[in-house]
Amino acid sequence: MRELKVSVAEMVEAARARIEEVETEDALAMLGDPSVVFVDLRDVRERQRSGHIPGSFHCPRGMAEFWVDPKSPYFKEIFGQAKTFVFHCASGWRSALTVATLQDMGFEAAHLKEGFASWQKHGGAVAFPEPRPEPR
Can you give the pTM of this predicted structure? Predict the structure, then answer.
C-alpha cells in the first residue's frame, strides 16, 4: 500500500481549523432567511436518494471553484450575489475541503459542520426532487 504524506482526515482537520463552521441548530434557524443560500455539494444521486434542504442550490463539488469564479466561463450568477453561503455535503468532510479552497480564492463562505446527515437527524426540513418523466 502506498503511504500518503497527509491523510484526508488530516486535510479535513486542517480545513476546519481555518474556516467558519455552522452548527446544525444554527443552520436550522437560517432556513428561510433570504440572505442565506445553502449550497449542496453532494452528487445528484445522493440528493435524489436522501432529499435536500428546501431551496438549496445544487453545485457538484467538482464545479465549485469554477462556478464561484466570475472570470470562469462556468460562473454562476448566484455566487455573485451578496449573500451568506453555507455549503454542505453528507457529513461535513467534502464541504470543509471545498470551503477552505474557496476561501483561498477569496470567496467567503461557511459550511454545515456535520453535514446533511446531522440536518436530518435534528429534524430539518427535507425536500425531494420531482421525479423525471419516463421517456416515451
Answer: 0.93
pLDDT digits (tens, 9 = 90+) for 6-40: 999 999 999 999 999 999 999 999 999 999 999 99
51: domain CATH number is: 3.40.250.10
Asked whether residue 113 is domain-assigned, the answer is yes
Cell 449542496, located at residue: 40
Cβ burial, residue 4 (10 Å; 0-12/13-18/19+): exposed
Report H helices in 5-127.
Answer: 8-16, 24-30, 44-50, 64-68, 93-105, 115-121
Give how many domains the chain has, as a whole number: 1
